[in-house]
Specification:
56 residues, mainly beta, 3-stranded antiparallel β-sheet, 7% helix, elongated, DDE Tnp4 domain-containing protein
Length: 56
């Protein structure tokens, strides 16, 4: 049924997370909708355990 994922080890995804930063750093983390956030790349196993996290 899922032949494309036959030997898949886990999942790779990128998302935006809201963060709190000092006022002086806010322009650096402001996104296009004016939220203060950063990118986060995460890899998890089939058991939903994170094995790698890379904040931007």
């Amino acid at each position: 049924m899922w032949k494309w994922f036959k030997n898949c080890l886990g999942v790779l995804d990128e998302t935006h997370i809201m963060i709190t930063v000092p006022k002086v750093d806010k322009p650096r983390y402001r996104m296009r909708k004016c939220d203060i956030e950063t990118n986060l790349l995460g890899v998890c196993t089939h058991d939903m355990h994170f094995v790698y996290v890379l904040p931007d």
